[in-house]
Amino acid sequence: MTVIANEIAEAALDEEFGRELDRIRAEIIAARGADDARYVRTVIATQRGLEAGGRVALAVSLFPPAWVAGTAMLSVAKILENMELGHNILHGQWDWMGDPAIHSATWEWDFLTPAGAWKRTHNHLHHTWTNVVGRDRDLGYTIFRMSADQPWRPRHLAQPLYNFLLAPLFDWGIALYDLEPDAVAAGGKSWRAFRTDLTGFLAKAPRQLAKDYVLFPLLAGPSALSCLLGNLTANTVRNLWSHTIIFCGHFPEGVRTFTEEHLDGETRGGWYLRQIQGSANIDGGPLFHVLSGNLGHQIEHHAFPDLPSNRYAEIAPRVREICDKYGVPYTTGPLWRQYASTWTRILRFAVPGR
Asked: At residue 5, does pLDDT exceed 50?
């Protein structure tokens, strides 16, 4: 009887926990309006201005100050487009505005992987099955072992090297990952679906590469080589930054993983618990959070993936207060600590054992 009573009490706590978080969600949905729309349009205008300025400066980048300024502006523009715009728009965070130019169904981002393929692997698979071993492919991106519940293989000894190589080539890694070749080999994805996704990738990737490494360098004339180098540097900076933010939001020590048994009878409150315990925040100021796509608030993003990203800073203290109230761990820390902790986890699970 005691066991049954404890289970009933625990279920009741889960439901109340879920209701409190649902109230936050409902309040933000009701409050969305002109200020939010102005925010995203301001970010878009800023991003486009930085990109235009960077392109112009790189067109005359035989002069070293122009190269530095152009590369810096283009790097920030690509970070903003990838993190605060592309990622969040494709989550449907701004669909409520009814603007076809800022809508998840029409936005195509400045990234090698097509938006449609990314929305399937990220929005559907990852955000549904967050950190469930065997269901969430983002848990280690099929090449890393990040949980004791994942079987160890000799190839995992090299995962520190994989991570080192993946960071500067993150757009290529995500593009190949979104094709899901592992799912095809396991019989979880049809060859027809794979060919469709591969066709989409082969249609988009050459255009992306030609834009940065052929078209704009040719337009730069005498500055062609330095322009190409600036574009390559900007893409690499964007990749290093996005890799760092994403890994620090998912893999530091303190972030839990789950087995499929956790899904049995999962309530709304239980879903929130899994999202919160399967994520980590990164401390920082307003500029840091804009440049990180507000994914320094990864906990809030996983709890409310379709709420406007500019609202995460507002609701984060309330989410943390609710977690403290119910004794739910809330993992957060400065970037350097989360980065070091992520590398610790990568190294720890590279070797066999629990």
From this structure: no
